Amino acid sequence: MCEVLKVSRSSFYHWKKRKPTMRSERRAVLSAEIFSIYHWSRGRYGSPRIVRELESKGIRASRPFVAKLMRESDLRSIVKKKFKKTTNSSHRYPVVENYLNQNFQVKNSSNVSYEIDMVNFRIVDKKNLKRTVVQDKLLQPVRIHFPTMTASHHSDISGVYLLDQFTLLKDQVLEIEVLEKNGGRHQKVQLENKDLINARLINSLNIKTN
Fold first, then answer.
1. CA separation (Å) from 170 to 37, 92, 124, 138, 194?
2. What is the mean pLDDT of each run of 10 residues along the chain (210 residues)?
């Protein structure tokens, strides 16, 4: 090793037996304290609050130095975005139910009739390829209007599904799955938040409750 590093044996053993300096020892102790405080705060504390915690323990350190040690240990505070109010509720206008009216159309271009057995609406994580049924959130339609469930050859059918309000988180999509009865021509389509934002508002919608 000494030949590879091009150093003498005496210099190598002197370096190996050398005791750590007070500066390096203080740096190691401070890094350990920062690591402990960071995980105690569940990653929410940045360098200013960690400096205050260190001061409460009688340990003095500057904020830039603490920030430098945090970067070396790859410790980053979790920044929680502030809630932004986007809805004005101070008005006298009537408030309608928050429903998604899904107009559904199936076009059959084949020479064989297509009979729909079931239509499922799920909220799924588009990054999780090996998902399970438990990880999917199945949405139950509030109302269904589908006069006919069979699309003859070279024809199309349409219906309406009414879904209750739901929320798509980041990296989530609304998956619509159409299952064919006594067949394997199942279809899937995925809608993202940007697709749902463009939904058109229906001013009046009468729903029978019984």
1. 29, 33, 11, 18, 11
2. 61 63 79 86 85 87 88 79 64 60 80 88 75 67 84 87 82 87 84 76 49
- DSSP H or E run through 124: strand 114-125
Structural domain includes residue 122: yes
* Assigned token pair, 32: 């350990």
Angle at the Cα of 163 from the Cα atoms of 89 and 91, rounded to 5 degrees: 10
- List 122's β-bridge partners, or say none: 138, 175
107 and 35 both lie in a single domain: no
Nearest residue to 123 (alpha-carbon basis) of 168, 163, 186: 168
CA distance 121 to 168: 13
Cα torsion for 87, 88, 91, 94, to the nearest 10°?
-10
pTM for this predicted structure: 0.46
Asked if residue 189 and residue 111 are part of one domain, the reply reads: yes
On whether residue 68 sits in a domain, the answer given is yes
Beta-ladder partners of 188:
177
